[in-house]
Amino acid sequence: MKRVLVVLSVFLFFAVLAGGVFAQVQVGIVLPTKDEPRWIQDQTRFLDALKTAGVSAEVLFSQGDSAKEKANVETLITKGIKVLIICPQDGTAAAAAANAAAQAKVKVISYDRLIRDTAAVDYYVTFDSVQVGAAWGKFLVSKATGKANNLYLYAGAASDNNAFLFFEGAWSVLQPKIADGTFVVQNSDKAVGLSKKAKLSRDEQASIIGQVTTNWNFSDAKNKAEANLTAAPAKAKGTVYICAPNDGTARAIADAFAADKQVTKYYITGQDAEIPSLQYIIDGKQSMTVFKDVRTLVSDAIAAAVAFSKGQTPAKTTTYDNGKIQVPSKPTAIVTVTKENLKAAIVDSGFLPASNFKGL
Ligand code: BGC
């Protein structure tokens, strides 16, 4: 009896050891780039949450390159993942990677950005991106009085479906105020040409985004803002309202406007609640950001992955059209953050400690 127990314990010991050391990666996570604080934030939150969830996963970065992204997905498929959580660098180019995963019977969760033009997307985990844009619009409108206020529009990368959703949200609030003369768009003749139209087609949106894109790139954003300021007459300056698409580009654009002596005051939007932008808000150099609590996105993504691996279907409240299918989703709400509620929304909520900030 004793012998049997010893053999059994030795067997169990090695079985547990093998399970730990040789456990297959069940979930593969692919994020767009390490070069923006936003995606490092997501990685950190994923690693924290995975530990608690007891899910084995590997995170890879695509460094802004769709070919690398596809190679990352192929590596993860070879490692035996059952679920892929992927934030595409380029929404359309990523269809090939999603198709490869689907062929290998891997469930595909589009994370934050939607993969377009393929049926190989099982679920979309996202914030309400139309509301992000609407929050910019509402903020700028709340600061404007009288007529003919100078408005500068900027957008994200046209390869990112979110850039369209953000723009759609912003346009839904700003367009009536452009049409009634509250604002005059100073850096896009396409936007001026379409200013009587409440709902734009994707092509019309693309024509404006094409003129005001930052490509989500800080130096592109700075160069575009400087070029716009060089081209603008003095009367297009003074107090200005700037719709900037995220925190990284907002800081670059804000610096360019702050450096122009003819700009006496500027209001500028953002999103992501990046630490340097929160500091800019405290210092009065950025006016607002949209806080997207990545902890919720990460836990929704893990919950969806767990549901799929159990053969279940994750919760759905709406669908998003990816050009090919309606992708099921349960978008997460967003919060507007200004100097007034920064401490409550960011620090008191436990998102970031106060030690990150000076002068809070
Ligand atoms: C994300 C933003 C991010 C931007 C640039 C968007 O798809 O939703 O949070 O700032 O990409 O990386």
Walk me through this protein's architecture.
There is one protein chain. By secondary structure, the protein is α/β, with parallel strands linked by helices. It folds into two domains: 22-126 and 294-329, Response regulator (Rossmann fold), CATH 3.40.50.2300; 129-291 and 337-356, Rossmann fold, CATH 3.40.50.2300. It has helices spanning 2-21, 37-53, 66-78, 95-103, 129-143, 161-179, 189-193, 202-212, 218-231, 247-258, 275-282, 294-309, 342-348; strands spanning 27-31, 57-61, 83-86, 107-111, 123-125, 149-153, 183-185, 238-243, 263-268, 289-291, 318-321, 326-329, 335-337. The strands form four sheets. The chain has a five-stranded parallel sheet, sandwiched between helices. It has a four-stranded parallel sheet with strand order 7-6-8-9, sandwiched between helices. Helix 3 (66-78) packs parallel to helix 4, helix 5 packs parallel to helix 6 (161-179) and helix 6 crosses helix 8. The N and C termini lie far apart (68 Å). The structure holds beta-D-glucopyranose.
Search tags:
binds beta-D-glucopyranose, Rossmann fold, alpha/beta, 13 helices, 360 residues, 2 domains, single chain
